[in-house]
């Protein structure tokens, strides 16, 4: 049997607008009298207060209508003409699918699984025509979700302003999706990547992941997380249960801190310590952990990984480090150029400098990571980037998911044979 990788569950259109800090604040504040979403003013005041203090990394205002986003788009266009915006197919699963497709050059084993909304369908023309095969075989809908992303021109943060109708989990034709998986599983070992957990409630994601996990023909599961800032600790722990259904879970540094804090952990610890201590904290909070898992944390400074159970036993750490480095390198190239790189480009492109100081500040010293059995990769320093911030985490997930898929499939076979 051959291997196939599927990324689920939703896509959208991303509009990336690079502005100065003052321009972003002006756009948000000027729209307070116009936007109808009742929580908008409160969220904007909270966000702008943090921006002025330099305390904000990323933020998202959820609940906007299509007209609300239209108003914000008009205000943003006053500062940067639309022809200078970056428009791309978005949504974490769609981005990860495209990143894996480009990385493998031909992408014959890669597919997107989920509804194809009208904004994505209309984007599959001109420069995106090559991605049409990725989105074939799915239910097409007339929904038109999109996300306006106001990005700091210096690359420090982004404000996500999504209109999400049509891409929520409860709108997905999951019965068609699962039927398609079962047909594909007759001839392929499947690696299923679930990108983002912010389009439905924990119980709905658990139901979907359990349906996939309980079908033994589905070889492996990857979960990429999202920002949990708007959720109370109990809800965050619900999403963590979804993460523990996966063979590989990928957080960014902020998401890991939010999850760790929801469990009562010390958020001032280095990310390597958080990854290593996460299982024990989860158990203390009554959460059933997966004893065989790879946990990853990524940031602008690089990425780290911690393996447990059969993955720690079977995976060569040098090989894992090289895979992690290639994923970091590929993501950096996307940010630098605006284009998704293939594996050859990611392997051979040379950067002039790296972010070793920033890496040590975020993750800790290399010696300490080695002593704690943490695999790591340091990101290069990017000057004058042509690509936007939005979607970089999903790009990383698509590449590292592809790099790890063969590992996961082989180890799941071992676990299956031994009925573990």
Which keywords apply here?
420 residues; alpha/beta; UDP-N-acetylmuramoyl-L-alanine:D-glutamate ligase; eight-stranded mixed β-sheet; five-stranded mixed β-sheet; 16 helices; 13 strands; globular
Would you mind describing this structure in some detail?
The protein is α/β, with parallel strands linked by helices. The protein has a single domain (2-16, 91-417), classed as UDP-N-acetylmuramoyl-L-alanine:D-glutamate ligase. The protein is 44% helix and 18% strand. The protein is built from 16 helices and 13 strands. The chain has helices at 21-30, 40-53, 66-77, 92-103, 118-123, 174-184, 202-213, 233-243, 253-262, 271-284, 310-314, 317-337, 343-348, 356-363, 366-371, 392-417; strands spanning 2-8, 12-19, 58-60, 86-90, 110-112, 146-152, 158-163, 188-195, 218-224, 248-252, 293-299, 302-308, 375-378. The strands form two sheets. Strands 5-1-8-9-10-11-12-13 form an eight-stranded mixed beta sheet, with helices on both faces. A five-stranded mixed beta sheet has the order 3-7-6-2-4. Helix 7 (202-213) links the parallel strand 8 and strand 9 (218-224). Helix 1 runs antiparallel to helix 2 and helix 4 packs across helix 16. The longest helix has 26 residues, at 392-417. The relative contact order is 0.14. The mean pLDDT is 90.
């Amino acid at each position: 049997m051959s291997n196939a990788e599927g990324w689920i569950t939703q896509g959208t259109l991303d509009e990336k607008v690079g502005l100065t800090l003052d321009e972003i604040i002006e756009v948000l504040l000027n729209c307070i009298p116009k936007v109808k979403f009742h929580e908008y003013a409160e969220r904007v005041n909270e966000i702008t207060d943090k921006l002025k203090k330099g305390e904000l990394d990323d933020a998202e205002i959820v609940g906007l209508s299509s007209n609300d986003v239209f108003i914000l788009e008009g205000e943003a266009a006053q500062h940067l003409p639309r022809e200078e915006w970056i428009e791309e197919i978005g949504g974490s699963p769609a981005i990860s699918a495209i990143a894996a497709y480009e990385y493998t050059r031909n992408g014959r084993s890669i597919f997107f699984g989920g509804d194809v909304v009208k904004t994505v369908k209309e984007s599959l023309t001109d420069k995106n025509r090559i991605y049409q095969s990725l989105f074939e075989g799915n239910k097409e809908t007339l929904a038109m979700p999109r996300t306006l992303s106001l990005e700091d021109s210096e690359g420090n943060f982004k404000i996500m302003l999504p209109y999400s109708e049509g891409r929520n989990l409860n709108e997905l034709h999951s019965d068609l999706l699962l039927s398609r998986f079962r047909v594909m599983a007759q001839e392929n070992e499947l690696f299923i990547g679930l990108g983002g957990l912010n389009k439905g409630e924990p119980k709905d994601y658990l139901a979907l992941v359990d349906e996939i996990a309980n079908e033994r023909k589905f070889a492996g599961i990857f979960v990429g997380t999202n920002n949990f800032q708007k959720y109370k600790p109990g809800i965050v722990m619900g999403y963590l249960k979804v993460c523990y259904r996966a063979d590989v879970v990928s957080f960014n540094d902020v998401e890991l801190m939010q999850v760790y804090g929801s469990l009562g952990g010390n958020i001032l610890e280095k990310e390597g310590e958080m990854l290593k201590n996460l299982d024990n904290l989860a158990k203390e909070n009554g959460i059933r952990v997966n004893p065989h898992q790879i946990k990853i944390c990524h940031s602008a400074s690089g990425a780290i990984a911690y393996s447990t159970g059969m993955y720690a036993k079977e995976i060569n750490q040098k090989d894992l480090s090289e895979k992690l480095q290639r994923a970091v390198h590929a993501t950096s190239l996307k940010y630098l150029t605006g284009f998704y790189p293939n594996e050859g480009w990611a392997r051979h492109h040379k950067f002039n400098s790296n972010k070793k100081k920033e890496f040590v500040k975020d993750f800790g010293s290399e010696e300490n990571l080695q002593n704690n059995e943490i695999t790591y990769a340091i990101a290069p320093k990017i000057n004058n980037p042509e690509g936007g911030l939005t979607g970089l985490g999903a790009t990383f997930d698509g590449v590292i998911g592809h790099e790890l898929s063969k590992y996961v499939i082989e180890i799941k076979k071992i676990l299956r044979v031994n009925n573990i």
